[in-house]
Amino acid sequence: MVIDVQLRYSFRVYPSAGQRMALARAFGCARVVFNDALRARETARAAGLAFIPSGELSKQLTTSKKTPERAWLAEVSSVVLQQSLRDLDTAYKNFFDGLKGKRPKVGPPRSKSRKDTRQSVRFTANAGWKITTGGKLRLPKVGDVPVRWSRSLPSVPSTVTVVKDSAGRYFASFVVETEPEALAATDNVVGIDLGLTHFAILSDGTKIDSPRFLRRAEKKLKKAQQDLSRKAKGSKNRAKARIKVARAHARTADARREFHHQLSTKIIRENQAVAVEDLAVKGLARTRLAKSVHDAGWSAFTTMLEYKAAKYGRTLIRIGRFEPTSQVCSQCGVKDGPKPLHIREWTCGACGAVLDRDINAAVNVAQAAGLAVSACGARVRPGLVPAQREETGTHPKVSRASGSQAGISVL
Q1: CA gap 49, 42 in Å, rounded
Q2: Angle, to 10 degrees, between the axis of helix 236-270 and the axis of helix 298-312?
Q3: If residue 58 lies in a helix (H) or strand (E), which one and from where to where?
Q4: Would you call 354 exposed, middle or buried from its count of C-beta atoms within 10 A (0-12, 13-18, 19+)?
Q5: Among the listed ranges 140-154, 264-278, 350-364, which one has the minimum average pLDDT value?
Q6: Do the beta carbons of residue 344 and residue 304 sit within 8 Å?
Q7: Which residues contact 130 (CB under 8 A, 6 or more apart)?
Q8: Lower Cβ count inside 10 Å, N or C end of the chain?
Q9: pLDDT in tens, 36-78
């Protein structure tokens, strides 16, 4: 049975001045409801009372909307406020799951601030939003918002999230369910070694240079940050300068994301199975190479490989981060110990093979995953390619209820 895959599609939207004000009200109301609910639960915890369930918080919200002091909550869609409560539930669930070891640890939920540069609200099918025949996004109590459609949606979306980012741009993010697109089978398999000088080294000998988007934009970013630091706090000029800094960073992030998308799509389309190393990015980000590690964006790239493998019926294998890929000869398998980073090529003392450090590591990554390849990428002995993995889907009813909290991002 083919299980549908949840995908997320984001499109730029251009609300008018009045629509921006309506969205600002929605952002503010959702934030107030989130903070009130968080405060109520924290007060109950401090008093030693039981955890307040979502149903009780929802009743309190409905009651407060009828009071003169909170009548302004009725100016926005009630679905937006209910989804804000669900976001709080998700934050608590992630926190408790982290304590139980079911997921990486995260901190407890924190209050939202009106000064946060990123704001978002979510509309489910109950809100009555729709895409008009003219291609606009009709949102309740906001209006028909123009959308720049870069592609067509593969199916009817279950939710839409309107996001305002730190650069002042607005996006509409849709969660849709679609069937995996099976590509033609191929015998090609590849191992990938990620690095800094070269972003990716493939086991077939291909080396992809690192674009270093942040390093290339440092001069402009530095100038924009200096201009911001010279503006008086609280002034309109400082707000304008902050937007300039945010837009400069957004351009860098967009360029990096586009590079990741193009490269990951190319690798997945050309290979039946792909092996990568599970890198300790958090640990590397605390070293002197932190800026270069963040600039490379390895985690985002491997995440793209993972969901695209599920989407196109390919296999992605992650090997352990403690595999000695740089210490083992990929030709004879002899481990001759660690080597300083400045050694980029050496001769194996056992078999006499001349090895390139990065290509040798990529071949070892593939072999550790059970993909038998040589330094030139050819199959050297019969090996079983792992079965194609399919991403676990969500039942349509569940997906409509949970909205965009689950799914795979496609930007």
Answers
A1: 10
A2: 50
A3: helix 54-64
A4: exposed
A5: 350-364
A6: no
A7: 138
A8: N
A9: 999 999 999 999 999 999 999 999 888 888 888 899 999 999 9
Q: What letter would DSSP give residue 279?
A: -
The tokens for 67 are: 């009071």
CA distances to 95, 118, 164, 280 from 103, rounded to whole Å, are 9, 25, 28, 16
- Would the CA dihedral through 114, 120, 122, 127 be positive or negative? positive
**CA–CA distance, 156 with 274 (Å, rounded to integer):** 31
Which amino acid, residue 2?
V
Closest CA to 137 of 146, 128, 125: 146
Question: By the 8 A CB rule, do 250 and 166 touch?
Answer: yes
Q: Which of 75, 74, 46 is nearest to 61 (CA)?
A: 74
Active-site residue list:
193, 277, 358
Number of residues written out for the chain: 411
The answer to whether residue 386 scores a pLDDT higher than 80 is: no
Residue 382, pLDDT above cutoff 50: no
Query: Are the C-beta atoms of residues 274 and 315 closer than 8 Å to each other?
Result: yes
Q: Which two tokens stand for residue 393?
A: 């889907």
Largest CA distance in the chain: 84
Distance CA 174, CA 10 (A): 6
Cβ neighbors of 21 (< 8 A, separation 6 or more) are none
Question: Would you say 103 and 109 are in contact if contact means Cβ atoms under 8 Å apart?
Answer: no
Model pTM? 0.82
C-alpha triplet 213, 299, 285: angle, nearest 5°: 75
Among 356, 187, 194, 162, residue whose Cα is nearest residue 275: 194
16: CB partners within 8 A, 6+ apart: 143
Residue-wise pLDDT for 243-262, tens only, equals 999 999 999 999 999 999 99
Secondary structure (3-state) at 272 = coil
pLDDT computed for residue 344 by the predictor: 83
Query: Predicted confidence band at 281 (pLDDT cuts at 50, 70, 90)?
Result: confident
- For residue 385, what are the CA distances in angstroms to 43, 126, 189, 199, 379? 55, 45, 8, 26, 11
